[in-house]
Amino acid sequence: MTTRPFLLALVLAAAPLGAQSHAPAIDAAAAHSAAVTAGEVQHGTATPEEHGASAEAACGAHDPNDIITPHITDSHCLDVPSFPKFWAPPHEIELPRWAPIHLGGLEVDLSPTKHVVMLLLAAVLCCVILIGAARAHVRHTHEVGRPKGFAAGIEAMVLYIRQEVAIPNLGHHGEKYAPFILGLFFFILIANLLGLVPFGSTATGNISVTATLAIITFLMVEVAGMRAQGLGYLNTIFYWNKDLPLWMRVPMFVLMSPIEVVGKLTKPFALAIRLFANMTAGHIVVLALIGLIFTFQSYFIGIAPAAMAVAIMMLELFVAFLQAFIFALLASVFIGQIREGAH
């Protein structure tokens, strides 16, 4: 199985629609302020308070008692553990800010954010884990005749997704789309799991990320339909039933063609909203329960929220696998449906 479609899927999925547009006057003022402060710090003319205020403005000020919003929202800063006192409050590291790109009258900010970093980390981990497991599989097969250890576990997951999810739904000669389905599954799974580790962030709780994944899947579905059906692909857009008489065929064409187009668009919309809503809702519940402990400030009352938070976290671990599985399953079903007309 070639790895090129898999790597292409990872590269595309790691580039979310996270571009943010800002008012030119506000951006210009913020850039000027940041430049002045950076120059003052470099020449030693800025006070620590001024420097701290600038860093706080760049990272976005928030209530220190608010532990919910920073975890599920995007920002231009990364939280890192304090060293050597790991139990102390985390530090914020500001990510580099790039000059905005001007598209006509629109100003687009393509600077990296916390979720972009998490997506790139998920892509790197996905490549390292899967390629490493594949090489270990070959090495163990030559040595003892079978895979073992971690490589055997990854092989079981790959075979299950390929043989039980992708190929049965992709249809006749649909094996060539299996690497794309596998890439979606493992990339989304790792991105989901990164949101459950300390100092991590849930990139799949960003609607821009899930929308990008859905658009990539939509394009793959439509390309698969074009390749399988040729000119017959137009029948998936324009409703032209040759079994009806002409006096019925024309009004049905006018009525049903917009419905066919809307039906195409609802599929990626459902993919984006489902993944976004499930990953966001679970984290809000967990963090809200943790917030109750600090609200009541009582060891006795805090036992119940802590136990419930642990239970929800265990459920979130299951949801991380489930949502990656559902996204891969629906993608394979959509590809199989549009290819069905050619077989």
Summarize the biggest pleated sheet: 3 strands, antiparallel
Number of domains: 2
Helical fraction equals 55-70%
What is the straight-line distance between the termini? 23 Å
N-to-C order of helices and strands:
HEHHHEEEEHHHHHH
| Spatial strand order of the main sheet | 1-5-4
Based on CA atoms alone, the radius of gyration comes out at: 25 Å
Which class of secondary structure composition applies to the elements? mainly alpha
Broad shape? globular
Rounded mean pLDDT is 79
Tally of alpha and pi helices: 10
Roughly what fraction of the amino acids lie in strands? Answer: under 5%
- Chain oligomer state: single chain
- What are the segments in which pLDDT stays under 50 over at least 5 consecutive residues? 1-56
What's the total count of β strands? 5
Characterise this structure.
- This protein has 343 residues and is mainly alpha-helical.
- It has 2 domains: 4-13 and 115-342, no CATH class; 20-112, no CATH class.
- The protein contains 10 helices and 5 strands, in the order αβαααββββαααααα.
- It has helices at 4-13, 24-43, 48-59, 69-72, 114-144, 150-170, 178-194, 207-229, 246-296, 299-339; strands at residues 20-21, 77-80, 91-94, 101-103, 106-109.
- The chain has a 3-stranded antiparallel sheet, with no helix packed on it. It has a two-stranded antiparallel ribbon with strand order 2-3.
- Helix 1 runs antiparallel to helix 5 (114-144) and helix 8 (207-229) packs parallel to helix 10 (299-339).
- The longest helix has 51 residues, at 246-296.
- The radius of gyration is 25 Å and the shape is globular.
